[in-house]
Amino acid sequence: MPVDHYENFPVASWLLPRHLRRPVEAIYRFARSADDIADEGEAPADERLRQLAGYQAALDRIERGEMPDDPVFGPLTDAIRAHAIPVAPFRDLLSAFAQDVEKTRYANFGELMDYCRRSANPVGRLMMHLYGDRDARHLAYSDAICSSLQLINFLQDIAIDYRKNRIYLPQDELAAHHVDETQIAHGDTRGLWHMMMHAQIERTRRMLQAGAPLGRILKGRIGLELRVTIRGGETILRKLHADPACVFTARPLLTRTDWAMMLARSLR
Predict the structure, then answer these.
(1) Considering only CA atoms, which of 111, 114, 116, 153 is closest in space to residue 247?
(2) What pTM was estimated for this model as a whole?
C-alpha cells in the first residue's frame, strides 16, 4: 500500500502475513483519511467536525448491518465483517481527531496520555485483534508501544505542529523548564531546552522499553514487524537525544541505513 505520509512504522508492509494486509490497509485508510480531515487543507473547524461526524455516522451504519460502498468504508466494512473487528476503537480514533480540531494545548502529561489512549492505542489493539491475541498483559504492552510512538511523533514534529498552532508538550513541564511559546516559535534552544527535551525523550524511551517484550512474544513475521517498529522508535529517540535542537533544523528521519540496521538487529 502506498503511504503518502511519513510514519515511524511500516503499514501493511511485506512483513505482515498476506491474509492481514487487506484489513490493515482498510484500517490505515480509515485512520489516515480521518486524520487528514482534522489536519490538512484550509477548511474551517466546523466543517472539519461535520466531516468527522459523517465518519461516525458511517460507523453507525456498519453497526446496523448496512454495507457502505465508498472507498473508505466499503473495504473497512468487509474487514470488520470478515474478522469480527470491534467498532469501538474506530470511534476512539475519531474522538481524538475531533479533539485535534478544538484542543491545541495540553496542561499536563495526563492529558497527553489520554489523547494517546484514543489516537494511538486503538491502532495497536486493532492489530492485536487481527492477530488473535486477547491477553490483557499483551494489550498493555501494545498500549505502551503505541503511546510511545505517538509521543515520538510529537517530539519530531514540534516545529511542524507549532505552525498548526498546536503544542503536544505538557504545559506544566515547559513552565518548569522556563520554556515558553516564543522560544518554540523562534526555534530558540537556549536555556533549559535540552534538559526539557531529554526529560521527554527519556520518559518516552522507558515507555517504549516497557512494551518491547511484545516483540518477542508475538512469533513469526508479526513479531518481526513489531521488533522493527520498536527499533525505529529507538533510532528516532537516539537522534533526538543527540541533538534536541534538530526538531527546528532537520527533523530526524529514518534513513535506508537505519532501516537495514533495524531489520538486521530485529532478526537476531
Answers:
(1) 153
(2) 0.91
